[in-house]
Design a protein that fits this description.
The chain has 87 residues and is mainly α. The chain has a single domain (17-85), classed as Ribosomal protein S20 (Methane Monooxygenase Hydroxylase, Chain G, domain 1, Up-down Bundle). It has 3 helices and no strands. It has helices at 5-40, 44-63, 69-85. Helix 1 runs antiparallel to helix 2 (44-63) and helix 2 runs antiparallel to helix 3 (69-85). The chain is elongated.
């Protein structure tokens, strides 16, 4: 357990950040999962609709520092590549 007041404050901040990070991770995972299901089902209309929400979630994750910009770019690129394969 933290002893100094600064360590106690850091612990409180860490707990708050953990909650936000878990929410952010769940949002990314859910959107990616939905998008991949649509691509596997070859449902181009649904996949097209999900791309914008996936981009939005990834951009927010980068903005808050949850993931790096290159990671977001890579995920977006792979999403678009799989969408283009649908034809």
């Amino acid at each position: 357990m933290a002893i100094t007041s600064s360590a106690k404050k850091a612990l409180r901040a860490s707990k708050k950040k953990r909650v936000f990070n878990l929410r952010r991770k769940a949002a990314i995972d859910d959107k990616l999962k939905d998008f991949r299901k649509a691509v596997l089902a070859k449902d181009k209309v649904v996949a097209n609709e999900l791309v914008s929400s996936l981009y939005q979630v990834l951009d927010k994750a980068v903005k808050t520092g949850y993931i790096k910009a290159n990671t977001s770019s890579r995920l977006k690129s792979r999403a678009m590549a799989s969408l283009k394969k649908l034809g």
